[in-house]
From TrEMBL:
Identification of the protein by name: Homoserine O-acetyltransferase
Upper taxonomic lineage: Bacteria, Bacillati, Bacillota, Clostridia, Eubacteriales
Domain of life of the organism encoding this protein: Bacteria
Function: Transfers an acetyl group from acetyl-CoA to L-homoserine, forming acetyl-L-homoserine.
Site feature location: Important for substrate specificity: 192
GO BP of this protein: L-methionine biosynthetic process from homoserine via O-succinyl-L-homoserine and cystathionine
Encoding gene (name): metA
Cellular component, GO annotation: cytoplasm
Swiss-Prot/TrEMBL keywords: Acyltransferase, Amino-acid biosynthesis, Cytoplasm, Methionine biosynthesis, Transferase
Amino acid sequence: MPIKIPIELPAFQVLSNENIFIMNDERANTQDIRPLKIAILNLMPKKIVTENQLLRYLSNTPLQVEITLIQTKSYVSQNTPSEHLDKFYSYFDDIKHEKFDGLLITGAPVEQMKFEDVTYWEELTKIMEWSKTNVFSALHICWASQAGLYYHYNIPKYDLEEKMFGVFSHTVNDEKADLTRGLSDIFYAPHSRHTEVRREDIEKISDLEILSEAEDAGVFIVTSKNRRKVFITGHLEYDRNTLKEEYLRDLEKGDKVNLPKNYFKNNDSNQIPSQTWRGSANIVFGNWLNYCVYQNTPYDLNTL
């Protein structure tokens, strides 16, 4: 889908250079169609990087996608220029009266904290509650998937003995499922987290389906049966070098961290890592937009 974003947003130039189909407001206004309204609650520290990653996968199909970027009011990012946030981001209070076809909630580096101890937890729960009535389908990534499963279904998260860090092979549990349609029998995805949710807890909830999992990394894609809640425990949106940058960052901080698994050739961090998950990311994000959102969302969002 051509992404409708301001021409001044850094992602506009980044994606243009990659020959990804994007559209500025002036051109979009000449098309007599209703764009899909997608809100992104960006909880990641480096928000511009995350914008580029997500917008790359929400693009390049025949329909317009209109993006609204949201930041938390209860916590102000220390890693993104305030000028960027002021210009391109809204607060929840600014958009809570609106309705959206889709909502995407990113991960956040807070998974070792209790949910209730996270500074913006109360604000996040308000947004997740609002999404039940004002959003057709909400996609939660990594920590947000754990937060969403906890809030909506009271499913706990568990500490891992060591960080789940690297690129892991996954399988599809139902090859006919709309969200995983087109994925190979074995596909790859990055993970970077200290906690997990467990299959046995999810299986107790009749409304939930596990569509994909990994032998090493556990549950991967979980959805409500009507696909209006989607939970992905990994980071399909990551760039080629994101895990490398996280690894080097943790080393510089003095953290005990292992080399990302199945990532560097010959486990040599000086090598350029292979991006083995790009095709899978395109399929999953494309399927979410197509099957979970576009094919089912009402034309008149006021009827949600």
